[in-house]
Amino acid sequence: MSTTQVNADPQTSDQSDAVRATDEHVVEFSTRGFTVVRGLFSADEAAAYRDHFMELNAAGNHDGDFAGVEGGGEFDPLKKYPRMIHMHRWDETSLGYLLHPRIRQAMFTLLGRDPYAVQTMLYFKPPGARGQAIHQDNFYLRAQPSTCVAAWMALDVCDEDNGCLKMVPGSHEWETLCTVTADTSQSFTDVTVPLPEGVEPEPVRMQPGDVLFFNGQVVHGSNPNTTEDRFRRSLIGHYIQGDAEKVAKFYNPALTMDGKPLELEIAEGGGSCGVWVDQDGKQVIEVVGEEGLVLDHE
Ligand SMILES: O=C(O)CCC(=O)C(=O)O
């Protein structure tokens, strides 16, 4: 199959090293749990990724495609545009993004060392599609010790109308929360986490080519795409911090940022999780027993 190829070579791409993660990004990432490197990829590169994945979608189904749980109705647009996962295992362009030198540089700057690469995802989020209820990525990846990190690239303009990501600043300091049932008329997944009163996620508006880096403990999600004519496509690489020794089975083998496969120990699910309790009028997380729910991936 011939599809649009994306130039992943920083020596010849128009973006080169012009845009990099800086000290300000490091400060924001460590204090808020996430940061956006604006223009890390050019608008043309984002357009080429968009074309590539639309061609892959048009070519048929792929292993792991996920149209969501029941609840989207008879005309659920995700049936035609299911989320793709682990494309880097069979698609060079996805692998090129996952290990891209600019992503590697940004990760190294934010984390102080290379991470291991473990997953790719592509959200098409067409007009009318449900969003994804708020969650913490490390609930699924189970990277231990420490956590996972995402590099979430906007392929379209992302705003509140088409369901941009929304993040809870500072929640990277939280324990992994116990999950509760989500509203599947709004979310294509059926689990979520509760927030204490007064805590609201904030929308992250992005332009094509901007990359949002976020810590795997950060509570985040997205609302439905309420537009009639705008997709909200995004390409995501998931990584685990380079001191992780274990990860859930689904993510093994991991890859070094040079592309070498690496078998880590398997982290079993069902560990302890946190619930919100009142302590002297303040909501704090109390870690309780075992999480009953074990999911392979989000
Ligand atoms: O793109 C979205 O709407 C959700 C993405 C997400 O939750 C993730 O990348 O972990």
- At the first level of CATH, the class is Mainly Beta
Task: State Rg.
Answer: 18 Å
Question: Helix fraction?
Answer: 10-25%
The largest beta-sheet arranges its strands as: 1-10-5-12-3-2
Please give the number of β-strands.
18
Averaged pLDDT, please? 92
Structural class: alpha+beta
Provide the CATH superfamily.
q2cbj1_9rhob like domain
Gross morphology:
globular
The low-pLDDT segments are: 7-14
The major β-sheet equals: 6 strands, antiparallel
Distance between the termini: 29 Å
The CATH topology is Jelly Rolls
Features:
single chain; 298 residues; alpha+beta; Jelly Rolls; six-stranded antiparallel sheet; four-stranded antiparallel sheet; 5 helices; globular; binds 2-oxoglutaric acid
Provide a short characterization of the protein structure.
The chain is of the alpha+beta class.
Write the layout of secondary structure elements.
Elements: H1 23-32, E1 34-37, H2 43-58, E2 84-85, H3 92-98, H4 101-111, E3 116-123, E4 132-135, H5 138-141, E5 148-154, E6 165-167, E7 180-181, E8 191-192, E9 202-203, E10 211-215, E11 220-222, E12 234-240, E13 246-247, E14 254-255, E15 261-262, E16 265-266, E17 273-279, E18 282-288
Parallel strand pairs: 13-16
Antiparallel strand pairs: 1-10, 2-3, 3-12, 4-11, 5-10, 5-12, 6-9, 6-11, 7-8, 14-15, 17-18
The structure holds 2-oxoglutaric acid.
2-oxoglutaric acid is lined by residues 123, 131-132, 137, 150, 152, 165, 220-222, 234, 236, 298.
